[in-house]
């Protein structure tokens, strides 16, 4: 018998008229286990699955469980050298998505032994590493994760957390106020520092580098750090209040990133910043550890998140990225506004805001929370409202979110600093 007649893998048949066949053995025979009772130590995932035409949802869900854990397209002899029942992921429940044709929520349980302790990088490499390009699926989205307490305790989490930050700043009972310096690119370091001073002296708690302010020819990072530190100390001396500027330490390599963080610490400033998605989780966790050990607060920007989370049927929901950030480490993160220029649904936004800052969050599908999450003693992350915000958004923000409102541009501030104080 020729290869074409009998031994070619069905996976090579990709024409629409043929459909998709997973391999020499159906995934659901091993990885679809509706009778499975989840354990307290399992990592649980909720995937929005859109199968290819002709692929049953059970097979699609089982394929996700297999390809994100121990499985491959065929049976291999080395399967007999380990215990698949101990290590395999399991698709234990599937339900249709109301109002969406051919979309299903597949629930997958992963044994904790599959993951390296304290590594968001390894967790994502396993759960979302390769399976999103799988031929059996037209689209795949990771909607939520349940991180078990046993795994939570392997992470250090935020460098300091909400309460410690308020203690450091001596600011209680109100949102913190800040703005991003604009234009975000093109200013010299001296003029950039001048803008910081005017904002801080006018009543803001913080000013901020934008995500793409790193170390460009028109403004090298060391010069920016020096002029911003001068603005901080001058405004503090004149107001008697603690001030800060989010100095972006994001760099092209981890060594340079840490060098910038060290310089910020030597200047005595209270806070630095990192782009955690473009910089990467390994770099972010390293920077978080440095900040914890050296008394620096760490603000997190989520640049690039919409590439991952904006499509409704493919990618990863921001609530998953928010949980990952809390584990990796950060004291603040941009979280959407409901009002303003950026996309955000009220109930869904409130759901991941609570996942960032609360200790225990109950399952609530109306807010997009698929699993109850217990963070035990891990500090909370302060959510940041940012994007097209002006002073008249303040009442809505404080009512809806009860968190930090951020102003998106300096130009909006000159005539409204007095109004901001009246609003608060």
TrEMBL record:
Q: Which reaction does it catalyse?
A: D-ribulose 1,5-bisphosphate + O2 = 2-phosphoglycolate + (2R)-3-phosphoglycerate + 2 H(+); 2 (2R)-3-phosphoglycerate + 2 H(+) = D-ribulose 1,5-bisphosphate + CO2 + H2O
Keyword entries, A-Z: Acetylation, Calvin cycle, Carbon dioxide fixation, Chloroplast, Disulfide bond, Lyase, Magnesium, Metal-binding, Methylation, Monooxygenase, Oxidoreductase, Photorespiration, Photosynthesis, Plastid
* Primary subcellular site in the record, as a coarse category: plastid
Known cofactor(s): Mg(2+)
Q: What is its EC number?
A: 4.1.1.39
List the GO molecular function terms: magnesium ion binding; monooxygenase activity; ribulose-bisphosphate carboxylase activity
Q: Which InterPro entries match?
A: RuBisCO, RuBisCo_large_chain_AS, RuBisCO_lsu_C, RuBisCO_lsu_C_sf, RuBisCO_lsu_fd_N, RuBisCO_lsu_N_sf
- According to the entry, every stretch annotated as the Ribulose bisphosphate carboxylase large subunit ferrodoxin-like N-terminal domain falls at 31-151
Q: Per the record, GO CC terms?
A: chloroplast
Q: Where are the transmembrane segments?
A: none
Subcellular location(s) per record: Plastid, Chloroplast
Q: Which residues form the Ribulose bisphosphate carboxylase large subunit C-terminal domain?
A: 161-401
Which residues are the signal sequence here?
none
Q: Which GO terms describe its biological process?
A: photorespiration; reductive pentose-phosphate cycle
The top EC class, named as a word, is lyase
Q: Looking at the record's lineage, which domain of life comes first?
A: Eukaryota
Per the record, the similarity remark reads: Belongs to the RuBisCO large chain family. Type I subfamily.
The record's note on quaternary structure and interaction partners says: Heterohexadecamer of 8 large chains and 8 small chains; disulfide-linked. The disulfide link is formed within the large subunit homodimers.
Q: State what this protein does.
A: RuBisCO catalyzes two reactions: the carboxylation of D-ribulose 1,5-bisphosphate, the primary event in carbon dioxide fixation, as well as the oxidative fragmentation of the pentose substrate in the photorespiration process. Both reactions occur simultaneously and in competition at the same active site.
Q: What is this protein called?
A: Ribulose bisphosphate carboxylase large chain
Q: Which organism is it from?
A: Oldenlandia corymbosa var. corymbosa
């Amino acid at each position: 018998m020729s290869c074409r007649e009998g031994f070619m893998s069905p996976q090579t048949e990709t024409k629409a008229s043929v459909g998709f066949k997973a391999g020499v053995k159906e995934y659901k025979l091993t990885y679809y286990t509706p009778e499975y009772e989840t354990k307290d130590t399992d990592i649980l995932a909720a995937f929005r699955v859109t199968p290819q035409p002709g692929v049953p949802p059970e097979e699609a869900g089982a394929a996700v469980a297999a390809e994100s854990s121990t499985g491959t397209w065929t049976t291999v002899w080395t399967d007999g050298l380990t215990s698949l029942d101990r290590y395999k992921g399991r698709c234990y429940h599937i339900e249709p998505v109301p109002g969406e044709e051919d979309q299903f929520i597949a629930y997958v349980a992963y044994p904790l032994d599959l993951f390296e302790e304290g590594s968001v990088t390894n967790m994502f490499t396993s759960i979302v590493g390769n399976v999103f390009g799988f031929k059996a699926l037209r689209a795949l989205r990771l909607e939520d994760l349940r991180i078990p307490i046993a795994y939570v305790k392997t992470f250090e989490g935020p460098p300091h957390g909400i309460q410690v930050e308020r203690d450091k700043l001596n600011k209680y009972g109100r949102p913190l106020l800040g703005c991003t310096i604009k234009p975000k690119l093109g200013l010299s370091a001296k003029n950039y520092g001048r803008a910081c001073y005017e904002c801080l002296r006018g009543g803001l708690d913080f000013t901020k580098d934008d995500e793409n302010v790193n170390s460009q020819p028109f403004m090298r990072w060391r010069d920016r750090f020096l002029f911003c530190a001068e603005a901080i100390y001058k405004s503090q001396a004149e107001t008697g209040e603690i001030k800060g500027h989010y100095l972006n330490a994001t760099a092209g390599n981890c060594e340079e990133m840490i060098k910038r963080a060290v310089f910020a610490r030597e200047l005595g400033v209270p806070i630095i910043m990192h782009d955690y998605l473009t910089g990467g989780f390994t770099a972010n966790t390293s920077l978080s550890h440095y900040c914890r050990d050296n008394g620096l607060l760490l603000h997190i920007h989520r640049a690039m998140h919409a590439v991952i989370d904006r499509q409704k049927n493919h990618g990863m929901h921001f609530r998953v990225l928010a949980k990952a950030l809390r584990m990796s480490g950060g004291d603040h993160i941009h979280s959407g506004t409901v009002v303003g220029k950026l996309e955000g649904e009220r109930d869904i936004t409130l759901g991941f805001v609570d996942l960032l800052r609360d200790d225990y969050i109950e399952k609530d599908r109306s807010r997009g929370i698929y699993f109850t999450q217990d963070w035990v003693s891990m500090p909370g992350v302060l959510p940041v409202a940012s994007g097209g915000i002006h002073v008249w958004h303040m009442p809505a923000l404080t009512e809806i979110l009860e968190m930090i409102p951020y102003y998106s541009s300096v130009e909006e501030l000159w005539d409204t600093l007095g109004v901001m104080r009246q609003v608060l």
